[in-house]
TrEMBL record, chain A:
Keywords for this protein: FAD, Flavoprotein, Oxidoreductase
Species per Swiss-Prot/TrEMBL record: Pseudorhodobacter antarcticus
UniProt keyword Flavoprotein present: yes
Taxonomic path: Bacteria, Pseudomonadati, Pseudomonadota, Alphaproteobacteria, Rhodobacterales
Entry protein name: CO or xanthine dehydrogenase, FAD-binding subunit
FAD-binding PCMH-type domain location: 1-168
PROSITE patterns according to UniProt: FAD_PCMH
Molecular function GO labels: FAD binding; oxidoreductase activity
Keyword Oxidoreductase applies: yes
SUPFAM superfamilies (alphabetical): CO dehydrogenase flavoprotein C-terminal domain-like, FAD-binding/transporter-associated domain-like
UniProtKB/TrEMBL annotation, chain B:
Keyword vocabulary terms for this entry: Iron, Metal-binding, Oxidoreductase
InterPro entries, alphabetized: 2Fe-2S-bd, 2Fe-2S-bd_dom_sf, 2Fe-2S_ferredoxin-like_sf, 2Fe-2S_ferredoxin-type, 2Fe2S_fd_BS, Ald_Oxase/Xan_DH_a/b, Ald_Oxase/Xan_DH_a/b_sf, Ald_Oxase/xanthine_DH-like
Signal peptide (residue range): none
Organism: Pseudorhodobacter antarcticus
The protein's name: CO or xanthine dehydrogenase, Mo-binding subunit
Family of this protein: Belongs to the xanthine dehydrogenase family.
Gene3D superfamilies: 3.10.20.30, [2Fe-2S]-binding domain, Aldehyde oxidase/xanthine dehydrogenase, a/b hammerhead, Aldehyde oxidase/xanthine dehydrogenase, molybdopterin binding domain
PANTHER family xref list: XANTHINE DEHYDROGENASE (PTHR11908), XANTHINE DEHYDROGENASE SUBUNIT D-RELATED (PTHR11908:SF157)
GO molecular function ontology, one term from the record: 2 iron, 2 sulfur cluster binding
Domain 2Fe-2S ferredoxin-type residues, every copy: 8-84
Pfam annotation, one family: MoCoBD_2
Length: 280, 913
């Protein structure tokens, strides 16, 4: 049983190959998913790797390192297009969880209710994957492939999330629905990013979570609202099921499928209005 | 370079001290702090980041220590509550304000709360309520309802503290330990390295099983010291809180009747238990069809849980007076409803835990409990051992609410210590605690109530089926209590009520604050609103019109000549009912979006103490030769404040000014039986015993100098002074003979409330006193999403006499929080919500301001007029919320919890739920 805390990605990849470890960063999913008596596996700790924590400006946008915590995201100075991501960070668990848990861990855990997914989808995020042989970069929408499933080989490591450049005038909002105030798994959540000029929505990106195995962008809804006046969002008819076609909600202890269908439409409207106007 | 830190020690700074340790890979920081470094002030409630009790600071940031690999603390500064209160001025201020406000009840969440508060106040010395909620929202509390914690962090000025006597809002006498992290709960007693016990449990709701080669399994593993099964139980392999229904095995034999039932237990070194995978244990399961609902249980050909209980019917309770059917037929209006509620989990933040050792040939059990003497009686039978060989020393209890009345860890501890001859410890995981201990009974209730056009009730017919799970526990009590209480505190001449307790393959349902009355109250108070609306009457005035009064018989035919306080409670809500109703109307009139507000009412009552059964408490006290005053207090304080309240009553009766009081116990070797902490009986029953004991001790002192009863007594410098109108007598204690306990003066007194048996129609005098309550709830419903936000509560409680008003408010706020949880979010589903992120209880952000109105209609039986309060505080809450939801959005819900999905479905006209 070995606990490895390498200081470089290269060393971490070597550990991955040699000892098939469980990976830990913030620990907030690592421990709860650990079964009794299952502590005999090796552990690879990513938190000491140089350059893996923090948000940096790149030539093409932003890079969020794999050890970046939710609190790091809340505290970072970022354009308004990231407001939805920041708002989602504030809604993950509690401050204790936000202080340790990482955005990349949230992505790799691949829960259908991962709060980080909708804002990242609305930011057109990409995943930077390190490996000894063939480092690669894939769109987030292709990286998470199902419930608890990601496109990551045993010898690969997610090094960062990349956000392509965002327009300065893009604003955003995140709306989460749960059965209590704090520490609640989302019944449904929605992120919306919009560009508004002269009261008209020029561009919209909307993503819904906890309504399908993997959070989804809603292209038909985006198409519907683009070109519309912000003032019209309140009354716009979202009744056409095709607007939410990529979603396939199920019933669970948190809510029925039909409830999720109704709620996601309501949350989309609220997220769009909030993103466009800043008003809740 | 790859840092392989397996074999090398790591260093960090804990509370200002450099430490160097060698944890195993993947060890949790919480484990390291508690077991390697002795920081038992770090509490573990869930090991999943769901409760926040283990919150510590790493480099000044709050973290759940249970989610941090210890290796990540290398080079960091780690601070826990005990370190903070030693050196940090902010923490030291919180130590004071938490006590001033009664912000710690049981105290298990307090370290987490205070550590979060320190982090907040360092950043923001003058936070508002929202900032406190955001900062402390990651710590769950099941006792306080959070508002007093918010007050303590903001440091709202507290009420001035009086002397120790009755009526004073003194600080808890046991509060300092709770706010400094030194209180020892069930998991805090065992020395590090003690042998540990892991229970092997059924993964199926119903399964036959055969144990395999246990000896071979044990031999193949290092560090396993013993395996316990039914064959190791020397006495009776059965326990139960009611002797006639003692049906639950310590270890199941051949057949498991619920998911989580124990079949064996493994005793081993901490390392061996850590590495134990319960799935490897040699047992072969044969899953069988299981029944989960009362409907399935009563179906033809349903599997029978217990041979002697036909059709899975465990027992029935029944009360009738007048002619309910005739009165309903004659009524001008009749309303009817079918209501259902689910399992509710107690969700105390302290999972069951304890420690046992053999001392001088006797077994000593240290565990969290609400009923030490009942534990002793159960262990006597299980161990087949004379009770003189057993000592129960309760630890501090991190919340109980009824479930810690039943034994849980005690048999495993005793059997483990006896079989190995060594000290042993056990702590349930959160999931184990939820799977295996008792729950609130799910209910299916059919109720019809009639009324005449003038508003008087005319006929009440109640039929309730309660899912009592696999074993009896307190199911018979629920079946008996419900028909007695289902009327609510009203005058109902023609009444018929039957409650059945029915077995299923679910966890045993037992005692939970209110014993079934919160469930029946939902049905009755909901239909009272429907009746008032049908009649076109004001909902509050309708209740006042029908309220019980002195000299009016209850549905059991019991007539109280005094002390009936429900009308006073309801009348106390008149101003709030008018003002909040008008405010809600105004809000709705100007609402443009989907938010609507509503105001709801509900009342409740609860009989204090056992139902028509003996229920004595004994309290003992003495004065040592050095003048020390000692109270032997055996009534379990599970956070509600018995230690403080009983001391206040005792000191008032004794009438001794300005002295300190040493409190002993609870401990079955040292304290006489003060009964169990349940049924809202400790203030009333043990309080009366304390009053009588104080009276008797005072009388003995006065007798020594032939002083009159109004003489002033004081203790100073090892002597007692008695001052009467003519002279001051000095009693030199040093020269007096001492008794076996070392006392120069001593008294032991018992109190047993006067009750009379119930006849076959439930007529009699079940309780010596009832307490009364009425709640008003304001809610805001988002009609587009079906979400409900509680905005405000006003709660009027008749407590007879508030022995300690601050503790009364604490009970009210905490009870409302549990009632809100039951109404809006809590739903225990075996196999699905066995943790604190799928089973939701209210957080700090869910409980709105609560205005308490303390009503004092004295009771002739109560000590200084006091009545019980512990269960009353949640009985009206859920129906008040349901009534408020109806008034906000027009939808009546007939089942709880009112989760958004369910309310939304009702708003859309779908089938309920």
């Amino acid at each position: 049983m070995i606990y490895s805390a390498p200081t470089s990605v290269k060393d971490a990849l070597a550990v991955l190959k040699s000892s098939q470890p469980r990976i830990v960063a913030g620990g907030t999913d690592f421990f709860p998913s650990q079964r009794a008596g299952a502590q005999d596996r090796n552990v690879l700790d990513l938190t000491r790797i140089e350059g893996l924590r923090g948000i940096t400006r790149t030539a093409s946008g932003w890079r969020i390192g794999a050890a970046t915590t939710w609190t790091d995201i809340v505290k970072a100075v970022l354009p308004p297009a990231f407001d939805a991501l920041k708002q989602s960070a504030r809604e993950v668990g509690s401050i204790q969880i936000q202080n340790r848990g990482t955005l990349v861990g949230n992505v790799c855990n691949a829960s259908p209710a991962a709060d980080g997914l909708p804002p990242l989808l609305a930011l057109n995020a990409e995943v930077e994957i390190a490996s000894t042989d063939a480092p690669r970069r894939v769109p987030l929408s292709h990286f998470v492939t199902g419930v608890r499933k990601i496109d990551l080989a045993a010898d690969e490591l997610v090094a960062a999330i990349h956000i392509p450049a965002v327009p300065e005038d893009m604003t955003s909002a995140f709306v989460k629905l749960g059965s209590r105030k704090y520490m609640v798994i989302s019944i449904v959540m929605v992120a919306a990013n919009v560009r508004v000029q002269n009261g008209i929505i020029q561009q919209a990106r909307v993503a819904g979570g906890a309504c399908s195995p993997v959070a989804q962008r809603l292209p038909a809804l985006e198409a519907l609202v683009q070109g519309r006046a912000v003032a019209d969002l309140v009354g716009l008819d979202f009744g056409d099921a095709a607007l939410f076609a990529p979603l396939s909600p199920i019933a669970d202890v948190r809510g029925s499928a039909i409830y999720r269908v109704r709620a996601v439409a309501q949350l989309c409207r609220r997220a769009l209005i909030q993103a466009a106007t800043g008003e809740k | 370079m790859d840092q392989r830190v397996t074999d090398t020690g790591l260093a960090f700074v804990l509370n200002g001290q450099a430490v160097n340790i060698t944890p195993v890979p993947g060890e949790r920081l919480s484990e390291t702090l508690r077991e390697r470094l002795g920081a038992r002030d770090v509490k573990i409630g869930c090991n999943a980041g769901d409760c926040g009790a283990c919150t510590v600071l790493i480099d000044g940031e709050t973290v759940c220590a249970c989610l941090v690999p210890t290796h990540q603390a290398e080079g960091c500064r780690v601070e826990t509550l005990s370190g903070l209160v030693a050196t940090d001025q902010t923490a030291q201020r919180l130590v004071q304000t938490f006590q001033d406000h009664g912000a710690a009840q049981c105290g298990i969440c307090t370290p987490g709360m205070m550590v979060c508060a320190v982090a907040l106040l360092r950043d923001n010395p003058t936070p508002d309520v929202a900032a406190v909620q955001d900062a402390l929202g990651g710590v769950l509390c099941r006792c306080t309802g959070y508002r007093k914690i918010i007050d303590a962090v903001i440091a709202t000025p507290a009420a001035p503290v009086g002397t120790i006597g009755v009526g004073a809002s003194i600080r808890r006498l046991d509060g300092l330990e709770k706010v400094t992290g030194t209180e020892a709960f069930g998991d805090d007693v065992a020395p590090a390295g003690t042998l540990e016990i892991r229970v092997i449990r059924s993964p199926y709701a119903r399964a036959a099983f055969a144990l395999g080669d246990i000896a071979g399994w044990q031999a193949a593993r290092g560090g396993i010291k013993a395996v316990l099964t039914a064959a190791d139980v020397p006495g009776l392999n059965a326990f139960g809180v009611i002797p006639a229904f003692r049906d639950q095995p310590v270890f199941a034999e051949n057949l498991a009747r619920f998911r989580g039932e124990a079949v064996a237990a493994v005793v081993g070194t901490p390392e061996a238990i850590r590495d134990l995978n319960p799935d490897d244990f040699p047992v072969v399961w044969t899953p069988l069809d299981a029944i989960s609902t009362v409907a399935e249980a009563q179906a033809k050909d349903a599997p029978q849980l217990h041979d002697e209980r036909q059709n899975n019917l465990m027992c029935k309770g029944f009360v009738a007076c007048g002619d309910a059917q005739a009165a309903l037929a004659a009524a001008d209006v009749v309303v009817e409803g079918r209501f259902s509620t689910g399992f509710v989990e107690h969700a105390y933040i302290e999972p069951e835990a304890g420690f046992a050792q053999i001392v001088n040939g006797r077994i000593e059990i240290h565990a969290c409990t609400q009923a030490p003497v009942m534990d002793l009686e159960a262990m006597e039978l299980i161990l087949g051992m004379d009770r003189s060989k057993i000592r129960i020393i309760p630890t501090a209890v991190g919340g109980g609410f009824g479930s810690k009345l039943d034994i849980s860890v005690q048999p495993y501890l005793a059997l483990g210590a006896l079989k190995t001859g060594q000290p042993v410890r056990i702590t349930y995981s959160r999931t184990e605690s939820m799977q295996s201990t008792t729950k609130r009974h799910p209910s299916e209730i059919h109720l019809r109530i009639g009324a005449m056009r003038d508003g008087l009730i005319s006929g009440f017919a109640f039929s309730g089926e309660f899912n009592t799970g696999a074993y009896a526990s307190w199911g018979p009590t629920v079946a008996n209590r419900v028909p007695v209480h289902a009327s609510g505190p009203y005058r109902i001449a023609d009444y018929w009520a039957e409650a059945k307790a029915i077995h299923t393959n679910c966890p045993p349902s037992g005692a939970f604050r209110g014993f079934g009355v919160p469930q029946s109250s939902i049905a009755q108070e909901s239909l009272f609103d429907e009746l008032a609306d049908t009649l076109g009457m004001d909902a509050l005035e309708f209740r006042i019109l029908n309220a019980l009064e002195d000299h009016v018989p209850t549905v059991c035919g019991q007539v109280f000549a005094q002390g009936v306080g429900i009308k006073a409670c309801l009348e106390a809500l008149r101003p709030a009912w008018a003002n909040e109703g008008a405010a809600a109307d105004a809000f709705n009139a100007s609402a443009t979006g989907s938010l609507r507000r509503g105001v709801g009412l509900a009342a409740g009552w609860y009989g204090c103490g056992n139902t028509s059964l003996p229920n004595p408490s004994i309290i003992k006290a003495g004065v040592r030769a050095d003048g020390t005053l000692v109270l032997h207090q055996g009534a379990m304080d599970i956070g509600q404040g018995a230690n403080t309240v009983i001391s206040q009553i005792f000191m008032t009766a004794l009438g001794v000014q300005s002295t300190t009081l040493e409190r002993i116990g609870p401990d079955t070797d040292l304290t006489p039986d003060a009964g169990k902490t349940s049924a809202s009986r400790q203030t009333f029953v043990s309080g009366n015993a304390a009053r009588l004991c104080g009276d008797a001790l005072r009388a003995a002192i006065l007798r020594a100098v032939n002083a009159p009863s109004d003489a002033e007594v004081s203790i100073a410098d090892g002597d007692i002074y008695v001052k009467d109108s003519s002279t001051t007598h000095r009693i030199a204690l040093a020269g007096l003979p001492v008794d076996a306990d070392g006392y120069v003066f001593a008294a032991v007194e018992q109190y047993d409330p006067p009750t009379k048996p119930l006849d076959k129609n439930g007529q009699g005098a079940p309780y010596a006193q009832f307490g009364y309550a009425a709640h008003l709830a304001v809610v805001e419903v988002d009609t587009a999403l079906g979400t409900v936000r509680a905005v405000k509560f006003v709660a009027a409680h008749d407590v007879g006499r508030a022995i300690n008003p601050m503790l009364v408010e604490g009970q009210i706020q905490g009870g409302i929080a549990q009632g809100l949880g039951m109404a809006l979010m809590e739903d225990y589903l075996p196999g699905r919500t066995e943790n604190l992120h799928d089973y939701l209880i209210p957080t700090m952000g869910d409980i709105p301001p609560i205005e308490s109105i303390i009503v004092e209609v004295p009771d002739a039986h109560g000590p200084y007029g006091a009545k019980g309060l512990g269960e009353h505080v949640l009985i009206p809450t859920a129906p008040a919320l349901l009534n408020a939801i109806k008034r906000a959005c027009g939808v009546r819900l007939y089942s709880v919890p009112a989760i958004p999905s369910k309310l939304s479905a009702a708003l859309h006209g779908d089938a309920n739920g």
